[in-house]
Write a structure and sequence with these properties.
Elements lengths: L7 H13 L1 H9 L1 H7 L6 H8 L6 H17 L1
Helix pairs in contact: 1-2, 1-5, 2-3
């Protein structure tokens, strides 16, 4: 099965899963590519760089800001 690109919808699902499951959040922060592949998502370089820049301290704020940006871009 081919891996899917990260879309606004899949990003929001990742965010919700990471908020609800501390183990998944830790895996997303520690090994982004593997965590994304485990969700059927393609670990594109820009997303790996983004997730690698996150920490526990800034996770929710940066994810919320990114979701808002993706939402605005989707609306044009």
């Amino acid at each position: 099965m081919p891996l899917e690109p990260i879309t606004l919808g899949s990003f929001k699902l990742l965010f919700a899963l990471a908020k609800a499951d501390p183990a998944f959040r830790r895996s997303l922060l520690d090994d982004t590519a593997t965590a994304l592949r485990g969700q059927g998502l393609r670990p594109e370089p820009q997303w790996v760089i983004f997730f690698d820049s996150l920490t526990e301290a800034n996770f929710e704020a940066r994810m919320s800001a990114a979701a808002a940006t993706l939402d605005a871009e989707a609306r044009g």
